[in-house]
Design goal:
mainly beta; seven-stranded antiparallel sheet
């Protein structure tokens, strides 16, 4: 199985997360007509609401946080990503060649990370084009949880 698309945060998550994207893939095996198992991987990435970033920027400013040049932070970005591996047993109820039903459950490992970033300058040296400077987002704070 393979899937992907866009995700839209709902409920309490909508208060701090912005729309993002997702993909999943997995595979399994049916041992007989009744019993099977599915191993699945899911990945979601979402942006952050502007009001969440502004509140976090105020907290960093109160703590005296600075950028790579020692200047106070003026801009903050961020994203949320989570991924999981699940192992799901499946019990199929065979009723006919064209209709049936199944029950599934399972257990897995879930990891969520919230990353706050600030613009930073980087340097890269290429043997063909020489050295140049580029701007990229640098993580300054990461909150993770596992379940």
């Amino acid at each position: 199985m393979v899937g992907g698309g866009f995700n839209l945060p709902t409920g309490g998550t909508h208060n701090y997360a912005a729309p993002g994207w997702t993909f999943q893939f997995g595979g399994g095996r049916n041992f007989n007509k009744t019993l099977g198992v599915l191993l699945q991987f899911d990945y979601n990435k979402m942006g952050m609401q502007t009001n969440t970033l502004n509140k976090q920027l105020a907290i960093y400013d109160n703590l005296g946080a600075t950028d790579q040049n020692g200047d106070p932070l003026t801009q903050l970005g961020g994203y949320i990503h989570d991924w999981s591996f699940t192992l799901n047993p499946i019990v199929n109820y065979y009723t006919s060649d064209s209709w049936g039903a199944y029950v599934t459950g399972g257990a897995g490992f879930y990891h969520k990370a919230t990353v706050f970033t600030t613009p930073a300058l980087g340097y890269y040296c290429d043997p063909y084009y020489g050295c140049y400077e580029y701007q990229a987002n640098q993580p300054i704070d990461i909150y993770t949880s596992n379940a």
